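Why should sequence recovery work at all? Because a backbone constrains its sequence more than one might expect. Tight turns favour small or flexible residues, buried strands favour hydrophobic ones, and helices have their own preferences. The token representation captures these environments compactly. In the example below, the structure is given first.
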């Protein structure tokens, strides 16, 4: 497996956590987002979105951190990232979607750059906007986390939602 990522990318970090929890070896293929390396033609051939992460497996490519983690869970079921109970599995996926879809885009480099360049916001405006919506998402997530567990979002060991939350 080859993991295309960037050390500061929270999305790539999610996948690194999942790979570590599963005890899987991989080759790291870094792409410096600050230098625009994700826009190189060679990388765009792997991932037309020009985003990280992308996971190469036996000549095939999986993109999007949540899809990669779901694939890891299906291909390498032990140790499990999802609980056995179907409702708890759905809850773990809901928490993960909240992080990936509602929180993460608001602190994404390309979104914040677009606000500065296209909307004319200064750094203070961007930070205030991001902090407002990130706090709203984290408050919602906190209400979903099972209070009977001390360390993890849902269960007695780290799981899918924890893979997404830790890098945020």
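From this structural description, the recovered sequence reads:
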């Amino acid at each position: 497996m080859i993991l295309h990522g960037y050390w500061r990318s929270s999305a790539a970090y999610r996948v690194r956590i999942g790979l570590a929890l599963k005890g899987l070896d991989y080759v790291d293929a870094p792409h410096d987002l600050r230098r625009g390396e994700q826009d190189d033609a060679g990388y765009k051939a792997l991932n037309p979105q020009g985003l990280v992460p992308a996971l190469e497996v036996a000549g095939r490519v999986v993109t999007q951190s949540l899809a990669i983690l779901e694939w890891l869970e299906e291909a390498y079921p032990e140790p499990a990232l999802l609980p056995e109970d179907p409702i708890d599995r759905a809850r773990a996926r809901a928490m993960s979607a909240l992080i990936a879809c509602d929180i993460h885009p608001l602190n994404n480099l390309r979104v914040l750059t677009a606000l500065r360049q296209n909307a004319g916001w200064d750094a203070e405006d961007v930070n205030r906007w991001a902090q407002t919506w990130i706090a709203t998402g984290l408050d919602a997530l906190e209400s979903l986390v099972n209070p009977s567990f001390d360390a993890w979002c849902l269960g007695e060991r780290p799981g899918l939602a924890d893979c997404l939350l830790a890098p945020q």
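A few observations help interpret the result. Residues 2-75 form a domain with the Glutaredoxin fold (CATH 3.40.30.10).
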